[in-house]
Amino acid sequence: MSSSRKHHIKSLMLSIAKGLLEEEAKEQEEERSRYMEESCPPVSMPRSMQEMQIDDLKIKVQDLMGKFKKPVLRKVRMSADAMLKALLGSNTPLISTGLQQQTVS
Prior knowledge:
mainly alpha, Troponin I, fast skeletal muscle, Troponin_sf, muscle protein, actin binding
């Protein structure tokens, strides 16, 4: 037999085997689905998955809110000069906010 003839026969055998494997896979899938229909009751979900995920997120948020307490804020009396000093730092020259120091000539 020539090499081209061997190659042709080999390719035919491979294509037939591939077809048989595909048929067998289809039969297994059909058998599995038929068995599942007969043996297992259908799953009934009362709500959609998205609603369940939203409910889970709401529960997580509520849990987190319960873990952290808001601190009680106190009123602080501070003059404008002291506020500027706190914000800008002590190294910057102080800008006076009082009108007494400004003179009009």
